[in-house]
Amino acid sequence: EDQVTQSPEALRLQEGESSSLNCSYTVSGLRGLFWYRQDPGKGPEFLFTLYSAGEEKEKERLKATLTKKESFLHITAPKPEDSATYLCAFSGGSNYKLTFGKGTLLTVNP
Amino acid sequence: GAGVSQSPSNKVTEKGKDVELRCDPISGHTALYWYRQSLGQGLEFLIYFQGNSAPDKSGLPSDRFSAERTGGSVSTLTIQRTQQEDSAVYLCASSSRGAGDEKLFFGSGTQLSVL
Q1: What pLDDT is recorded for position B1?
Q2: What is the pLDDT confidence band of residue A28, given thresholds at 50, 70 and 90?
């Protein structure tokens, strides 16, 4: 069965303290692995799409990586404005929908 | 419009009433998706439209839920005889092709509260 699990559920960091969020997935025929950011009261905002193992993408303090079983979102020297829920999702097989994990709630304290 | 628009932003209803939620996708986007997000839960897929057709309705939780899309644009999600467990944020998203390898653009959602 296709599924995705994110860990940890919540992460609290001090400003400048780098860390990583994990997304473990199981799917036959991955079409894409997606990372989104969601702020309270808003819809998810797209960050990255990864398509194949070994691929990496960067945006400001964020870097996403992909293996055949996991994706990591690395956050370097985070700032308080990086506080949000980070969602991982995939599409694959015969499905065109995105299947989402439950997310990691990141809090960055000044 | 520049983004996906959903209305109303908040809806409070009584148990047993019907509600309609509206989504205006980004102009030109052929694919439209409805998701539901409950407190502490991930996004739960409801239905996917390609044009006016719905090739994947597998996420609709019961026959009280239905959705339609007209003119390849606006979509309406209807919940009949609402129940308290229907309380959630209903999110709409659109994408240009719906091929599964492209990003979705989300609206801000409709917060539905069933009393």
Answers
A1: 53
A2: confident
Answer yes or no: is pLDDT of A42 > 70. yes
Contact A100 B35 (CB under 8 A): yes
| Of the candidates B43, B104, B108, B92, the residue with the CA atom closest to the CA atom of residue A34 | B104
Q: What is the dihedral of CA A70, A4, A95, B100, to 10 degrees?
A: -50
Chain A CB contacts of B43 below 8 Å? 44, 87, 89, 98, 100
Is the pLDDT reported for residue B70 higher than 60?
yes
What is the spatial distance between Cα B35 and Cα B37, in angstroms, rounded to a whole number?
7
Phi and psi at A9, nearest 5°, equal: -70, -35
Average pLDDT of the residues in A32-47: 96
Q: Are strands A19-26 and A3-7 parallel, antiparallel or unpaired?
A: antiparallel
Q: How many residues does this entry show for chain A?
A: 110
Per-residue tokens: A91: 């599409």
